[in-house]
Protein: Major facilitator superfamily (MFS) profile domain-containing protein
Organism: Molorchus minor
Amino acid sequence: MKLSMDPQSLETAISAVGFGKFNIFLVLVILPAQFLITFENAIASYISPVAQCALNLSLNDKGLLNAISYVGAISGGVLWGFLVDTIGRKKALAYGCFVETLVVIITALAQSFYFFADSKIYRGIISRWIVHSIMHLPFRIPFYSIQGKIQMVTGFIAGIVLVGIPLSASFFLPLNVDITLFGGYLLQMNE
């Protein structure tokens, strides 16, 4: 028996399967990752005025902090593309989100320019890990009429994030915070 894999039989098989739970789960996985990617690319301009005061940054330091995550993204892109294809997208996405969470927490504890810059470059590298794991997923949805809608929804999410960042920044950044953890060894913020 010879199996035929011509485009007509593939389309017929895909339409017979239908849009189901897997496709809905796929969309639910794409949306938070799109949120993360957009947030990572846009947040630096909102935190740099506060970081300038807290870390005594010069204008060059602020420019470097804005650009350094892109350096990490460019340097890690090819490596992550290879590793994602090698270890599998599911594992890469799970590990990537976990590691990104740890690095974001470490970045939030930064008290010097060099530590903050190092963590920003690591965030750039890790965000490419997640991008390589997630950006192909809208095209795994086999219905061509729905693919365009999925792309529209991810763009809409990016727009919501870009509007939500200044709204949340206007609320959180003016707050006076006084936190000391572990006797000031790990974290001491006085404003």
